[in-house]
Please model this.
Amino acid sequence: MKGNTDALDDLLAAAEAASDAAGEVIRPLFRARLAVEAKGDFSPVTVADRQAEQAIRAVLERASPGTAILGEEFGQDQPARGLCWVIDPIDGTRAFITGRPTFGTLLALLDGDQPILGIIDQPVTGERWIGAAGRRTIFRGPFGGAVGCRRCPSLQTAELSCTSPEMLGEYRRAWNELAGSVRRVSWGGDCYAYGLLALGSIDLIAEADLKLWDWAALVPVVEGAGGRVTDWRGARLRREGDGRVLAVGDPALLGPAVRKLQNCMQK
Model:
C-alpha cells in the first residue's frame, strides 16, 4: 500500500462516496424524534446509526471487494488481511438524538494497525475533513476555517476539550490535573472537536473509553493538519489499547500534557 498514490486516491474516492451515502441516510432523520434503544453497554443507538452503517458498507463492498470491514453496529465481516475499513456511522449519538450538530460520521482505513486514511463528516452542516498518511488534511465546509493546527507550546494558553466527564471514569483525577493547567476547558464535541483542533480552534483533547472506531479516523486528520494523536503516555494508539486518547495541535504540548497526566496517575 505504501507509495502507491493511485491506489490511495481510489480508496479516498471510495471513502468519500461512502460518506456521501451515509449523509443521505442521516440528514432526513436528524431531529426526527427517533426511538432510542440501549445497547449492551448502555450506549444509545437509533435506526439512523444502523442504516448509515449499512449504506457505508454497501458502497465499500462494491468499491473495494475483499477488504475487511469493521463497524460499530455490525461488527467485522471477515478477517483483516492487511487493509480494513473501520466505521462509526454516528460518532456522538447523544448529540444526534438531542438535535445538536456536533456529531459526525467516521470512516477510516487501517493498514495493519496503522490508520492511513480518515474522514470526519458532518452531514448536516456540510463539513468534511479528509486525512491521508503523508498528505495534508483537506477541509471543506460553508462556515470558513482553514486547515492548520495553531501554535500553542504552553499548557497555560491552551484550550482543552473533552466530550463528557462520565467517559473519564477512574481517570478523572489525572484529567483534572491537566485541566487545572490550561486556560479554558470546554465539554462536548465528540469527533467534531478533533476537526476543530485540525482548524486551530482547539489546542488539546484528552478523553478516555474510546474504541477503535472512535479514534482511527481522527489520527490522519489531526496529524495531516500538523498535530499529534497518542495515548496518555505519548505512545502510538493501538487496537488493544486502554481507550485513553490525547490529541494536541502543537506537538510541543505533547510532553507537558503527558507529564501532567502521568505524574498524577503515579501518585
User: Anything to note?
Assistant: Residues 5-26 form the longest helix (22 residues). The chain is about 30% helix and 25% strand. The radius of gyration is 18 Å.
